[in-house]
Design goal:
By secondary structure, this protein is α/β, with parallel strands linked by helices. The chain is built from 15 helices and 14 strands. α13 packs across α14.
């Protein structure tokens, strides 16, 4: 609630049961790792706002907590649009067909008012722009995890970036897995430009490898690293993986647990980030005027990261692994499926903070909390030689 609503108004109750969903997953993670040397005991609900505890993000209504996203009216509804990457202003210019000033939002808002959500979705997919109509779709069954196994000593190769995939890898690392973060010179993790403390939380204790897939040696090393992995985490479309010379289906057949995190599934061209994916799936609150506001901080990311960690603990069966197609939009939809409607609960002042009335009395609105960080986050490629030597992979 603390991150939902307008800053000059009370915090709002988000629709659905995202916090309870996260709590159930964290409880299952604790149960699955209870007998290991490193049981994973985290508060799933508090993980949903953890980034804000490092960044100081606050609720901002129709501007996302991190500032990169906007909720804007279209000709037939509302849309969530993100401008988070260095090239996104150029993509927004291509969307509207005009050169944009330093502040692109007034021009983008004017274009959206004369175009439908469907038109936006089609053009955004073509451009690789993170933009989507707020158009909830029916929740589809989520992938079911297999029988859990001990993560101790498993080699986890993490190609993902930002929050969802790295959170998955971080939870596996807490349980005793060996996590190797893989980046390319052309595309370092964009989260390195964000909060250093939050990046360190997600990556402390991991090893970092930097390989260039544009070279023959780099592609061979990437392929060998994947062959050695027990678990692979990635957030790329199949075409991009093929460009690296990687085949998720083939790896799964050979025994790898492969977790693929995308905005809307491996078969979709859609690009998305936590804020626009969550809003597009319907995870928005309604303000006093009945207009949508963002819920939390990029909620699709931590929800998906938690869920992906449970999948990643699945054991291979009969020598065959599994390819888990994890659509962030469907994870969000699952938190709304058994909680129809849009609650409009608000909070009242309680001393210096806020509280909301429930059947059990007044409950304080919790501020974002952070976990303790220990260790350091590796620099790009800090452990390339070490990891390749350990796995007997020829240096590119």
């Amino acid at each position: 609630m603390a991150l939902t609503g307008h800053l000059d108004g009370p915090p709002l109750v988000p629709p659905g049961n995202a916090a309870a969903f996260a709590g159930r997953i964290s409880a299952r993670l604790a149960a699955a790792t209870a007998d290991s040397a490193h049981p994973v005991r985290v508060d799933g609900a508090s993980l949903l706002t953890e980034r804000a505890a490092f960044t100081g993000h606050r609720r901002r209504g129709r501007i996302s907590a991190g500032g990169a996203g906007r909720l804007l009216p279209t000709a037939d509804g509302w849309a969530a649009v993100s401008c988070a990457r260095p090239d996104d202003p150029l993509l927004l210019g291509a969307l509207v067909g005009a050169a944009l000033p330093d502040d692109p939002w007034p021009t983008v808002a004017a274009w959206l008012r004369t175009h439908t959500g469907a038109e936006l979705a089609e053009r955004a997919a073509l451009l690789g722009l993170a933009a989507t109509p707020v158009d909830p779709s029916p929740a589809l069954p989520l992938p079911a995890p297999g029988r859990p196994r001990s993560p101790a000593g498993l080699l986890v190769v993490d190609f993902s970036a930002l929050w969802a995939g790295p959170l998955c890898a971080q939870l596996l690392g807490l349980a005793g897995a060996r996590v190797v973060k893989v980046e390319t010179p052309q595309r370092l993790d964009g989260a390195r430009r964000g909060s250093p403390g939050f990046f360190r939380l997600l990556h402390a204790g991991h090893r970092a490898v930097l390989l260039d897939p544009t070279t023959t040696g780099g592609r061979r090393a990437l392929s060998a690293l994947v062959d050695a992995a027990d678990v692979v985490i990635e957030a790329s479309r199949p075409r991009a993986l093929a460009g690296f010379g990687l085949d998720a289906e083939a790896s799964a057949r050979q025994g790898t647990i492969w977790v693929s995190v995308t905005a809307d599934g491996r078969g979709s061209p859609r690009v998305g980030f936590g804020d626009d994916v969550a809003a597009g799936a319907g995870l928005v609150a309604q303000d006093a005027r009945g207009e949508p506001v963002f819920c939390g901080d990029a909620l699709a990311d931590p929800l998906t990261g938690l869920f992906a960690a449970e999948l990643a603990l699945s054991a291979p069966e009969n020598g065959r692994g599994r390819l888990f197609d994890v659509a962030m939009s469907q994870v969000v939809s699952a938190t709304l499926a058994d909680a129809p409607g849009s609650p409009t609960g608000t909070a009242h002042r309680d001393g210096a903070g806020w509280a909301v009335d429930t059947s059990d009395g007044a409950v304080p609105v919790a501020a974002p909390r952070r976990r303790t960080v220990s260790g350091h986050a590796p620099e790009p490629g800090e452990h390339t030689a070490e990891v390749l030597r350990e796995l007997r992979i020829p240096s590119p």
